Amino acid sequence: MAAFWSLKKKLKKADDDDDGYKLPTSHSKLSPKGKRSSWQNRKIVSWVIITVMVLILYKAFSGVVRGGREVMKTVGSNTSSNDGQVLEEDAYYDYDFEDIDPKVIEKFDGGVQHYLITQFGNDVLTPQDGEVFEREQKMLLSSTVESYDLSMFRGSANGAANGEHVLLCVPLRDAEKVLPLMFKHLMNLTYPHELIDLAFLVSDCTEDDKTLDALIAYSRQLQSGTLSQVFADMDQAAAEAEQASKGTEKLYLKYMNPDYLETVKESFSPPFHENYDKPFRSVQVFQKDFGQMIGQGFSDRHAVKVQGIRRKLMGRARNWLTANALKPYHSWVYWRDADVELCPGSVIEDLMSKDYDVAVPNVWRPLPQFLDGEQPYDLNSWMESGEALNLAKTLDEDDVIVEGYAEYPTYRVHLAYIRDPTQDPNEILDLDGVGGVSILAKAELFRRGIQFPAFTFENHAETEGFGKMAKKMGYRVGGLPHYTLWHIYEPSDDDLREIANKERESRRE
Predict the structure, then answer these.
(1) Which residue range is the domain that position 122 belongs to?
(2) Cβ atoms within 10 A of the Cβ of 157, count?
(3) Can you tell me the distance from the alpha carbon of 380 to that of 410, in angstroms, rounded to the nearest whole number?
(4) Which positions, given as ranges, span the membrane (predicted)?
(5) Using alpha carbons only, what angle is made at residue 74 by residues 73 and 76, rounded to the nearest 5 degrees?
(6) Do 107 and 80 sit in the same domain of this protein?
(7) How far apart are CA 94 and CA 327, in angstroms?
(8) What is the Cα–Cα distance from 206 to 154, expressed in whole angstroms?
């Protein structure tokens, strides 16, 4: 039995080492349709070897294997119910957007002479065989050249129906704890998963942080269709641990609005939409540091003195990820923060339907009830004001204006403050600056040089500078004031002190 498990671990390690961070669809336990990708062909020999080894082990240790069936059954029960589902959508297999047949290309692997002998029995061809040879040779040569008509990838209001591909970008730093939340939201997206390429950038994490390892592990489960069951088991264990600790681990929850907490609970409870467990078109994981030394605590990140430096470094990270992950066939780029707590699964379609070049929702966050229960979170989506333009004239060219601080009285109209939950969520208003929690932009903008300024652009940087740059180049930038995403609540130092005071008071009573 020990030999069997030792071999199993070695095979698993070999599989884990393969491909680095690439997670192509062929790694999924969900079955691809036919032999559409040449990636599969390179796996055949490996699978044959593994199959032979398993058969040998079965013959030698059949009694041991039979004895271990109950153990394997327990492990196997932690899988999704979609075993054997065939991934029919062409989008899973059009990685190169080339009209080629991998079976034809394979014929030339041994050289042209070998091809002629094996296919036609002679290197002197009949006119009919010559036509076949010319056609297949042309396909071979065409496979080495990729051409894209970028007018086909400009983006439209109905991207799902038009088969438009979306690059979904997520920057991550010390984000291990929020990864389950992030992946649940990704699975809940109703935009066709086969049209979404995921790109994660892990950067500047602290030494003991495990964001990168956890991200890769979750991504593999995601592409295998088993991640929802993994999270169900984790949630059950967390609930039991919370019950054992008598609710002291997240003490602030006692002071939150019960209706909000119930909404969160319902949002992550089944039934889910029918494609919840469906793998995405691809997953890319990047790791690169940019020298970000500012802490990830709420008070650290939001101190006014660090905002300019922090925003410029974040701009560098976003630009780096865009430059490395954007492909010619992407029509849209969707930027999303990992720490969003509530968001409609249809957010991509909802923003896309407005047919703006850049569109953002409103972003609020819940608060304890002793702090009025809720608060605008993202103040970086705004309409320009005369006061702000005059303020910029008084600043050095490298100074960065940041919203929500007394040091920068801009008197702008903020998208967050004109929210009315009773009004039409489809209403959209023109903006000048945008926040970075959730941005949908046409890929054309990035191809034409618009970026998240990692320098001071008209006294702004990163996402606000991105909005201003897009407007300056003639693109439409808009925000939905009544369409709201909810950011997670992160207790500030002052909040924690107030909660501690209330706990002490309650014990005295």
Answers:
(1) 102-142
(2) 12
(3) 12
(4) 44-61
(5) 60
(6) no
(7) 13
(8) 39
Residues 119, 199 share a domain = no
Q: Determine what percent of the chain is predicted with pLDDT higher than 90.
A: 62
Q: Is the pTM of this model over 0.90?
A: no
**Are 268 and 234 contained in the same domain?**
yes
Task: For 26-79, give the secondary structure using H, E and C.
Answer: HHCCCEECCCCCHHHHCCHHHHHHHHHHHHHHHHHCHHHHHHCHHHHHHHHCCC
Pairing, β 477-487 against β 429-430: antiparallel
Angle between helices 179-187 and 211-224 (to 10 degrees): 30
The C-alpha atoms of residue 505 and residue 502 are separated, in whole angstroms, by: 5
* C-alpha angle 76-338-94 in degrees, rounded to nearest 5: 65
- Per the structure, the count of domains in the chain is 3
Omega prior to 491 cis, within 30 of 0: no
Burial pattern 300-313, b for ≥16 Cβ within 10 A else e, equals: eeeeeeebbebbbb
Considering the domain architecture, whether residues 255 and 117 belong to the same structural domain is answered as no
Q: What is the pLDDT of residue 48?
A: 44
Question: Three-state DSSP class for 501?
Answer: helix
Q: Show the CA angle centred on residue 149, arms to residues 147 and 154, nearest 5°.
A: 140
